[in-house]
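[Solved] Which block belongs to which protein?

Original post:
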Amino acid sequence: MAGLLLFLSLLSLLSPLSSAAGHPRLTLVDRRPSLALTPPAIAQACKATRFQDTCISSLTRSKESGLPPKPGPLDIIGSALRVSSANLATAQSMVRSILQTSAGHLNRTNHAKNCLEVLPLSQHRITLTTAALPRHKTKDARAYMSAALQYQYDCWSELSYSNDTSQVDRTMSFLNNLMWLTSNALSMINSYDIYGPNTGSWRPPATERAGFWGSGSKSVGSSFGSKGGFPSKVAATVTVCKAGKGVCSYRTVQEAVNAAPNNGEKKFVIHIKEGVYAEIVRIPLEKKNVVFLGDGMGKTVITGSLSVARPGLFTYNTATV
């Protein structure tokens, strides 16, 4: 689970990627809602987000929001999570439609399938976020929601390599707006963690360099056993190295992941020694508390192609640890 912390920097990097496209389930048509008609609690909470007009519109005009008459901070965050979840379900439906109409187009089919692998994982993380907040596990919620955002971006990125129809373009625009909604929910969770329930003190999220994790945060609850950053004094559970590079437990990262216990309570640390590992590593949801520890940036590299083999066309997902 510690690997989730790596996704948090995405929030500071996320920017609009394409123009918005209308869709009956997406409440982003009016980009400038009247602040005079906006309940003060919502207006204050939305000041903590990067896309404030979208935040206000989605919370006040979406049938999925379900806000009570006098919402508290957790009510507002819960509403933002419901809106994100509802639009995520629509995004999955749109991608399934792409898959159904892509017979004979191997590359688009492949990217749509990859997209449909990661979007349910995003939904699962939003569900975990919703469950973590009432238990005051705010840092867990931040990690879960950041992962949900990363999965949505992964889907958008997949489709960008086969954006050759208006249907794909509309879906990418919808996914872009979905990321705005998810980013806003994550921003509010961050402020709740750092500044507490007083929405008047909430601020837009900082980067990791500027105190993203908030050393003075009001809540430090986390079942991850970390306040942020890589845990110190980590001992390897198993090792991975290339053939001819010494004695190790495994030769591939995937073999090491497969060896991790399901639903493990303790960290399963995989030390991946220096080298380029040309493989697609999949970590099932039941493989909890799996930690990758490499030999440094540019030294331990995991890379794999997710594209159909076509001349001149390659899609690589690469990580360096």
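(Second protein starts here: sequence line, then its structure tokens.)
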Amino acid sequence: PSVPSRHGAVKADDATKTSPFHLDLWFYFTLQNWVLDFGRPIAMIILPLEWFPLNKPSAGDYFHMAYNVITPFLLLKLIERSPKTLPRSMVYVSIITFVMGASIHLVGDSVNHRLIFSGYQHHLSVRENPIIRNLKPETLIDSFELLYYYDEYLGHSMWYIPFFLILFIYFSGCFTPAAGQGRMPLAAVLLVGPSSLYYWYLVTEGQIFILYIFTFFAMTALVLRQRRKGLVPDSNGLFLLYSFVITLLLIALWVGWLWNDKTLRKKYPGVIYIPEPWAFYTLHLSTLRGATGG
């Protein structure tokens, strides 16, 4: 029976209980990720500039605002459907941090993307950009670097760390003792491709490979640990696990394709070389688009 608490009714842990595949939530989750996150910079480029002046929020900004509201709601609904009692306080703190980080990113990302219309080249560092390095006084350059820090580092950290933490917390409850339940329905198989492709974009554009790979290793270790107890991932757990596996393959293909790109190599030095799709766009595709009158 449910036991009341300060946070509402708490489900009793039941190792024999499993959940059906949450087609509605996973579909809405994947759809809004593609439209509101991946689609926001595209909308900003495609829609006429006269509709969204440079000193006003762009269409992408409104997409981002919607994402910041819908995504935490869907994450909470996922947690609610877990057959296992999950740490409520950790979930709430993660959601609050997620919303704050995504909101910080909204402001920084909005300005950085608007700078593209003024000639900002995303494949270059802030100080190497022609429109930035000639600013006077030079302290203005420090301000743009601060903006970049809020966008690419602080915003991403406060956004993505709780995001992957919530997914892992949810995954920890997606196990069942019945081997026959550890299968993905056709709907999950069809949805795993778009989901994996979005995670590829999230990891590469967000530059969060270390966070992603640690989450993936933690999920794999949890699967091995639960198997010793006779438990296997249910359909929702398999959907998340396979999405992460395919994402890793897509990242490997992306890195292999751009392995010898000297310009991107300069932008992303170090052992972990994973170029951002937007850096690739401003380096190779934006000039092509302008030459063709696109």
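Accepted answer:
You had them paired correctly. Confirming on the second one: Confidence is low (pLDDT under 50) at residues 1-13, 288-294.
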